[in-house]
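Page 42, continued from yesterday. The earlier attempt failed because a stray header line got pasted into the input along with the sequence. Redoing it now with the clean sequence only.
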Amino acid sequence: MSVFSVSDLKVRFGRVEAVRGVTFDVDAGRTLAIVGESGSGKSAGLLGATGLLPISASVQGSVLHRGREILGASSGTLRKIRGAEIGFVFQDPLSNLHPLKTIGEQIGEAISAHRRMGRKERRERVLGLLDDVGIDNSATRLNQYPRHLSGGMRQRVMIAMAIALDPGLIIADEPTTALDVTVQASILDLLKRLQEKHGTALVFVSHDLAVVSDIADDVVVMRNGLVVEKAPAGVIYDRPKNAYTSQLLGAARLAGPRTYARPAAGEVGSPLLDVRSLGRSFEPSQPLLKDVSFVVGKGEILGLVGESGSGKSTIGRIIAGLDCPDAGTIALGGEEYASPGAISLKADLRRAIQVIFQDPYASLNPRRRVEAILADPFVIAGERDRARIGEKVRQLLSDVELPEEILGRLPSQLSGGQRQRIAIARSIALRPSLIVADEAVSALDITTQAKIVALLADLRDRLGISFLFISHDLGVVGELCDRVAVLENGRIVETGPARRIFEHPEHDYTKRLLAAVPGRRRQAVGFPLKVVSHAG
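This time it went through. Structure tokens are written below.
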């Protein structure tokens, strides 16, 4: 008997049919991956199946948990099942953990909500769970708050809460999307190890077939609320039958970049950005950046990679003039603008350096329409002719391949990819010479990522803009960037052409990062990972 069986599931929000007759099941000890682009119905289906959607949603079909129908069950019945028999791991642990409660309190609540247990026994159980999920110094972590933990550790806490009562099923919804490759690999290993230990059934939701390749036994591919293909993982990766599955595989960057940006010889042409001996400390005894030096050439895309906490975003903030260095200097086009304790960005330099942030929904004003958002740079720069501003705004939309009809829309009325294109359009409005792109594609699904990567490369080629591309996704970096700088604990440990870094890494840390790229581990044990195009 399957642990979890979904039949002809339909989810409707008003007139919108988000899930249309989905059927799948998962057995004990096996992992079912549900993949597809944003809006395909993956999360809506699972939330509907487990009674977590608002009452305004209409859910129909059949959902059996260990042979028992739970769709339409009372809220009391579902509360007894959720947490005790079905554990959940969601994408963003920071928004799912209470910021004012300690880690120990929150894991303890997950236990006491379903099982009576003495304080001492519960504490021992929480400590054991923290040890199980690989969090060191568990006795100390017990009294810390979510803000004290890294993204990877917060996700481990979520997993500890999910397995607290040894549920037979775990539903993990995009649990590794925002994590760097080494943390992502460790989370996948942890889920697999816990599954093997307890015989747990796992439903793993993701938009990335490369990530799924390292953990899935069976794969369900969804598009527009429908299941377009369902098969064992080996069949999906080696012999996909549906054109959409082939499209996802083509965008997945299995085991690394699909192509390299340019066959660069490693020589930087005319230097644009010159960073020398950069240092930054937030605590005197713990410097975050140590003697960081690199250059970005004119018309070049330099990728900056490293694990979470390595200092990548801090470098980007200092270069963009949003923070001051404690040591070192930065110059753009030969003009120095950053020195210890000081940032001096004149008007022309402020126009020359722009930023693209990770989350366009947060970086775009939700109350302003697209036309006003894109007009702002020109207004701030002193342009007063409305007709001329309108002409420039329409040109920006053309530059990022968006239709003029979206000018009257709010950010909430756009897709994630459209929002990021608007953020990119705003960043190129004043034709800067350098753009700092900080995790600019990490929140997007893989097909949208591929389009944004192609757009950035095209803007570089057409407009001659240089990019400092900060990312934890090595597949994207290898595909987009001319050269790569590898950052470990605040130090640059290796720099070189993208092809050389990926194919002949020299530093042990670089080798460790590459070994954690999704898909490489299956490839290492003989899994073919070849993409077969759909013939007809």
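Notes: Residues 524-536 have pLDDT under 50 and may be disordered.
Reminder to self: strip header lines before submitting.
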